[in-house]
């Protein structure tokens, strides 16, 4: 069974999408895992970072984005096909054509990133999601659409990483519904951490009301600036903030991950699909930040997440 992880923060600009994409690249090309990225954010940043504008426009024109899945249910059309919608061999680190990937034997150990693209049309869909229950004679919850139509494909992957929009609406709830865990990327400042109690409370309510299995994997600090007194103080305040946020939920306070992702130019440039890169280190930066090359922070984060998931599976968490 794959590990299904949602990435969420109610504040934009906290490197939520950047973290999702880098982890997808790390698991795929440095760990040889098969990764599916589901882009639920109408800003489509994860989609564009992984397949570029041309392939995204082709998917949108063919009716093969997540927005079209919801629009089919709302309009009675039948454009969306999950098999056709998933873009195989995504990421500019991929060197194997998609048609070759599909022909490789099942026992060949290789990593790859696939992506289920988003669309700006999701903005319009969000306000109409409640109508899905009415149009399906209440046979389908508006929170279970992705699970119903895309969930059966998850067993092909080792990781499913879900980039959620910065809200707790029905689109986001589709991601939470199918996730085992959620991770909160945050800058260590007041504005970025302000929504953590709302996230913890809402997901706890959904878990109880919907009998979901989702649990908090932790909080990862992003865009850290070692010369910022605000960031240093924010790091000191974060444990108490997190404890208060989860105090009245049904789960223990999750950890603050030891890996702290620094603010780097390379992480921003890594989101440009059209930029030519030779390998993982050049994409995520070989310059030193905080005592080590920038790209190594992604490796550290992936290793820490693997450790947390492994400890949970063995009961050592």
From TrEMBL:
Top-level taxon of the source organism: Bacteria
Signal sequence segment: none
Pfam family, one: AAA_31
Positions of transmembrane segments: none
Classification via Gene3D superfamilies: P-loop containing nucleotide triphosphate hydrolases
InterPro entries per the UniProt record, alphabetical: AAA_dom (IPR025669), DNA_Partitioning_ATPase (IPR050678), P-loop_NTPase (IPR027417)
AAA domain residues: 3-211
Protein name, UniProt field: ParA family protein
